[in-house]
Amino acid sequence: MHRIIAIMIGVMLMSCQEEVRLDLRETAPLPVVEGIWTTNSNLNQVKVSMSQSYYDSTSYRPVTDAEVYIVHEEGNNRFDFEYSEPTKSYLPVYNDRGIEGQHYTLHVRMDGNHYRSSGVLLEAPELDSLTYRYKEKRLLRPAGYYITLHGKIPFEEDNFYRVRVVRNDTLLVSRNDYLLFDDTFGTATLENGFEIETIPFDEGDEVRIGLYRLNEGAYNYLEGLVELMYNDGGLFTPPPQNPPSNFELVEGETPVLGYYMVGPVLSATVTIE
Q1: In terms of CB atoms within 10 Å, which of 115, 124, 143, 256 comes out highest?
Q2: What is the Cα–Cα distance from 122 to 173, expressed in whole angstroms?
Q3: 3-state secondary structure of 224
């Protein structure tokens, strides 16, 4: 998913459109870190990999020998992670989880570099229920069942949210599946019913929803990722660029890509009948 960006330019020549493949300058791969630390121990993991060039079609390249740990700042506790081959990610050794209101810092050490990112695990909003209804096909909307979240956001600040959707044990990760909202939608978003308008479901589908409250840095990264996935490299779109990482380089010289998301998660499940 995380790749060093190239630019595709459409050139108009004699009324014909030609796609130009640029001769890119070779750059060294960069480490990519994706960390998730929540109130649910089953979701907590850290993925460490190496970036690929835009045109590289090889598979995901995990880093298996990094030192990964999280420090609980208030308790001065250290939670160690170890690499898991089945998940190709680092998992907590003792199945640890975060606590609301506490400050957690992720550390990743590899190849002489030390990367760090911190965040406060904020209080969770309220998620009361999921409902669904069938909608007929329209020009820009397929026919299907559409899910609506109901709940409440009682906070006046730090309102950055992500909705993750799992259909029949498959996490949905296309560009239409990154559902983000903040204060620009108003804090009554859940009270009015937050409908997932981009994902239709079929009868018999089991739908699992995860509602995350994020720190602003993680939200900005995901927002940049969505913008990148919608960028077609055309003449009227800005040049593609990597999303802004919320990691800092503590030691070493090699920059890092990726993000660290610390926050509470609320889950709910419904089966379309």
Answers
A1: 115
A2: 24
A3: helix
Query: Residue 155 — left, alpha, or beta (φ > 0 → left; ψ -120 to 50 → alpha)?
Result: beta
Conformation bin of residue 54: beta by default, left when phi > 0, alpha when psi is -120 to 50? alpha
Asked if 167 contacts 202 with a C-beta cutoff of 8 angstroms, the reply is no
Question: What is the Cβ-side half-sphere exposure of residue 137, based on CA atoms within 13 angstroms?
Answer: 2
Instruction: Give 11-58 pLDDT, tens digit per residue.
Output: 333 334 444 344 444 567 899 999 999 999 999 999 999 987 655 556
Which long-range CB contacts under 8 A does 169-177 form with residues at least 24 apart? 169/206, 172/199, 173/1, 175/226, 175/229, 175/230
Q: Counting beta carbons within 10 angstroms of the beta carbon of residue 233, is it exposed (0 to 12), middle (13 to 18) or buried (19 or more)?
A: middle
DSSP 23: -
β-pair partners for 93: none
- The region, left, alpha or beta by phi > 0 then psi within -120 to 50, assigned to residue 246 is alpha
- The residue type found at 83 is Y
DSSP H or E run through 147: strand 144-152
pLDDT 10s digits, 212-233: 999 999 999 999 888 877 776 6
Q: Tell me the mean pLDDT in the region 135-149.
A: 93
Beta bridge partners of 98: none
pLDDT tens across 92-121, in order? 999 899 999 999 999 999 999 999 999 999
Give the 3-state secondary structure of residue 220. Answer: helix
Q: Give CA–CA dist 182/162, Å, rounded.
A: 9
- What's the pLDDT tens digit per position in 231-242? 766 556 666 678
